[in-house]
Specification:
This protein is α+β, with helices and mostly antiparallel strands. The chain contains ten helices and 22 strands. Strands 1, 2, 5, 6, 12, 13, 14, 15, 21 and 22 form a ten-stranded mixed β-sheet that branches. InterPro entries: FAD-dep_OxRdtase, FAD/NAD-bd_sf, Flavin_amine_oxidase.
Amino acid sequence: MTRRMLGGAVMVRRSGLGSSGQTRLPSASGESVMKLPESLWAASAAPAIDTPPLAGETGADVAIVGGGFTGLSAALHLAEAGKRVIVLEAGEPGWGASGRNGGQVNPGWRMLPSEVAAKYGGNRTPAVLAMLDQASDLVFDLIGRHGIDCDHERPGLVSAGLGRHAKAFLEAWSREWGEQGVKVERLERAALKDLIGTDYYHIGMHDPRGGHVQPLSFARGLARAAIARGAIVHGGTRVHSVHAHGAGWRLAATGGEVEAEHLLLCTNGYSDRLWPGLERSVVPVTSFIAASEPLDEARRRAILPGRHAVAETRRTLHYFRLDRDDRFVMGGRGNFTNGAEPGSVGHLRKMATAIFPALDGVAWTHRWGGRVAVTPDHTPRLFRLARNVHAGLGFNGRGVAMSTMFGTQLTRLVLGEETDMPVESLGLVPRHGLRQFGLTWYLVSGVMRDRLDLQETPPTWT
């Protein structure tokens, strides 16, 4: 990356364009174009909306880099507020984690309300907790209000766990969110089996706020809604450099340039060197997902009979659900030692059959991976990078609801309104260059501790 002066303004230029998990095809201009990776979601998504590449010079009130849930949510809400908005996406809407994740609409973070209070203090905590509580509602409200076709279901989210570690977390979650008015149901082993069809887990909890969507379809639906309200979305448009220009910012991109008063960077786990330091504010982690063939009727009656989304409390967690065609979809860790490689379907198949023995013999037809962005304390970040430049990222694998919500937080910043989240200066992850070693150790040690949890006597609620 280089920085130089251009017309009296600081210019930020990207020197490296590579990101793991990218599929590139040559374009007529000679620049590589990122192709949507093969996945179950790509095979079953609602039709893509036309988002032609940028051509020539143009202007807007707000330029948004990144066409995932965060950028598209911001574009939609800003367009509804009367702003002229342009989204610049190197691939197509939903190309990154937004179109590759498990589609679970998870309520909140993995941080308890008491931990939120300890982190943000008494003045900020009520707003942050309200934001967390409302994030899942926002997703389903947008789906209903804009008629987004994304196979959405809202039976709630089930958290399932093993041993004392799970019991302590789930007990605190149900108690503390219960004090906030959420009707969380605690589940002993027998009740959990009745709900999700397995007695593999010792203990569980049902949170009615959760659900699941077809994530690529949801991203495309957000793009369609934003465009219908006047936003412009350009796919196949990589931003190469940004520099201050007059009272705003000028972006040089594939096919042309954009001038805007406000700039929003919504690149999450695919952040690169476009803005100095942004990629070092999070740790990109590869998540891997596999999907089975459609289940037969007997298996369908026994596995996830209530069609709940399930997420484990393990340190190296797995998550699973059914899609619209009754395929079993399961996600988990990617490659331990190489973030550029997604992982192995063998690992997920083994775990899936341990949880649901009836899955033995089922064919697995799809496998794919992508990057999520992790922060040291597992909470997202809202950054002020410069005058009228903001970024929202670091969703720690719970981004369907929270990244959509962060689009509204970025909208407030553009409109000059108070945000629920505190706005911070750019902070870097310590020893970021050693992140792969640290991540590998965290995963390996987590697997060992999870195995100890599995061997414990099943706990009961007190």
